[in-house]
Write a structure and sequence with these properties.
The chain is α+β, with helices and mostly antiparallel strands. 57% of the residues lie in helices and 16% in strands. It folds into three domains: 14-169, Beta-Lactamase; 231-314, Helix Hairpins (Orthogonal Bundle); 319-467, Heat Shock Protein 90, CATH 3.30.565. It is built from eleven helices and twelve strands. The protein has a five-stranded antiparallel β-sheet with strand order 2-1-5-4-3, with helices on both faces. Strands 7-9-10-12-11 form a five-stranded mixed β-sheet, covered by helices on one side. A two-stranded antiparallel ribbon has the order 6-8.
């Protein structure tokens, strides 16, 4: 199990990205470290040269003030007291007269130094061959010597130099720091990549495992969420909402299938019985029987058409037909359509709208949805009752209300009446297929809104808050 996990981490994209970033950081570290190393060495060499220049200027001033004899004695003393420094008095022929010239290999070494000095403004870099026993007496011992030759008087030159022990020590420290830093960064990068890849791989494995369980039929499973709000939590949240929607749709499909089987079985059985009876019926009854069968078939076709319309609305396929709709004119048309029906039941059907408003949406669907609401209100309101339509502005949108004085809907069933084929037990003897409010809810969702049912005391109030901009996507 452990080796399988390790193999998965090693093959993961996160681990490979971590290694790639390690290489990039290592390259950046080397570039920056190399620049720091170079600048440090340049600075130390400049400090060394500044020290040598100060010593040479002081020595020349001492020679001019105290004379050659005292100066030569001073040089001999300095050569003994400062083993890390090189003091040599030279004549014009570059022959050593006094100082620590014995540390050099031979006279040819001094001649070579003098030959190279004019080309570098007197600056020279050479190596010493010092016996090991003598090296132990020099704290800053190093084979490399930074030196400069300057004239201090006619026929006299002074070569003064210092061993580069401090520079070489600093060089070793910086090089060691760079090497250890690079090694530590590599170890930490590999370890960090492994831990990060392991953490991400673990969460992805959870998602994959739950996805497989869902694929095998367990639609109740959901992606795990942590208290944070990182990318995985947002992804898991979106997946969970998608799964909720899928589960709702699947349950809706099952519910619709059951409802279709239940609600259409009776009319189909009735239609078959009627047709069977018409086979042996006298000619006078055939025509009326066929007419009834056609009406029964039309009713079933209307049910299927309503289901198809609802499915199209829930899929959002009707958004392309959105346009600006004059809601005042639309409401007037609906009232004119239902005024005769309301008059037959002596129902007071009235429209109140305080100002002209427009809406970006599908006029035909809005007309059908509002007509369904008015149709229900007129159908369930008793004779002599009242149905009122109101249209008014509400912030950046508008509010549509349809109120009636009928029996209303119990509060515990107000959410269920939007389900397909759901009908209250008290109303099952009335004509209808139980899809009217389902269609209203689908049209409302298409227009980025929601329909609410409230108590009108007595009766029912339907409140529909619509955004004036609709959905322009």
């Amino acid at each position: 199990m452990y080796w399988e996990h390790l193999r998965n981490v090693w093959r993961s994209t996160t681990f490979h990205l971590g290694l790639l970033f390690m290489v990039l950081f290592a390259a950046s570290f080397l570039i920056i470290g190399g620049f720091v190393y170079r600048q440090t060495m340049v600075f130390l060499e400049q400090e060394m040269r500044a020290t040598i220049d100060v010593e040479l200027n002081q020595s020349r001033q001492f020679y001019l003030e105290r004379g050659e004899e005292i100066f030569l004695a001073e040089i001999e003393g300095l050569a003994e007291l400062d083993p890390s420094g090189i003091y040599i008095i030279l004549d014009d022929a570059c022959q050593a007269l006094a100082g620590g010239y014995k540390r050099l290999d031979d006279d040819e070494s001094i001649q070579e130094i003098c030959t190279n000095a004019p080309d570098t403004d007197g600056w020279v870099l050479f190596e010493l061959d010092i016996p090991r026993g003598f090296r132990a007496q020099i704290p800053e011992w190093d084979d490399n010597v930074y030196a400069r030759i300057i004239p201090i008087a006619p026929n006299r030159q002074l070569l003064y130099g210092r061993m580069g022990g401090n520079i070489d020590s600093a060089r070793e420290v910086v090089q060691s720091a760079l090497a250890w830093g690079l090694a530590a960064m590599g170890v930490l990068a590999v370890l960090g990549s492994y831990l990060m890849a392991g953490s991400i791989a673990g969460r992805l494995e959870q998602i994959n495992r739950i996805s497989q369980e869902i694929r095998h039929g367990d639609l109740s499973r959901r992606m795990p969420l942590r208290r944070g709000s990182d990318e995985f939590d947002r992804l898991s949240g979106n997946l969970n909402r998608m799964l909720d929607q899928i589960q709702t749709l699947m349950e809706g499909v099952r519910s619709v299938s059951d409802a279709i089987a239940h609600d259409l079985r009776t009319p189909l059985a009735r239609l078959r019985t009627r047709l069977e009876r018409l086979r042996h019926a006298p000619p006078g009854e055939v025509e009326s029987g066929v007419e009834q069968s056609i009406q029964e078939t039309d009713s079933m076709l209307a049910t299927f058409n309503a289901l198809l319309s609802i499915a199209q609305l829930e899929a959002g396929s009707r958004r392309t037909e959105f346009a600006d709709v004059d809601m005042q004119a639309l409401m007037v048309d609906i009232v004119d359509l239902y005024e005769p029906v309301a008059s037959e039941k002596d129902i007071d059907l009235r429209l109140e709208q305080h100002t002209a408003v427009s809406l970006h949406g599908d006029r035909n669907l809005l007309f059908q949805a509002i007509s369904n609401l008015v149709d229900n209100a007129v159908k369930y309101t008793p004779e002599g009752g009242r149905v009122q339509l109101e249209l008014l502005r509400r912030g950046q949108g508008l509010r549509l209300m349809v109120s009636d004085s009928g029996p209303g809907i119990p509060s515990e069933e107000r959410d269920r009446v939007f389900e397909r084929f759901y009908r209250l037990d008290a109303h099952r003897d009335l004509a209808g297929n139980g899809l009217g409010l389902t269609l209203v809810a689908a049209v409302a969702k298409l227009h980025d809104s929601r329909v609410e049912l409230q108590d009108n005391d007595p009766g029912l109030r339907v409140v529909w808050n619509l955004p004036r901009g609709g959905s322009r996507s």
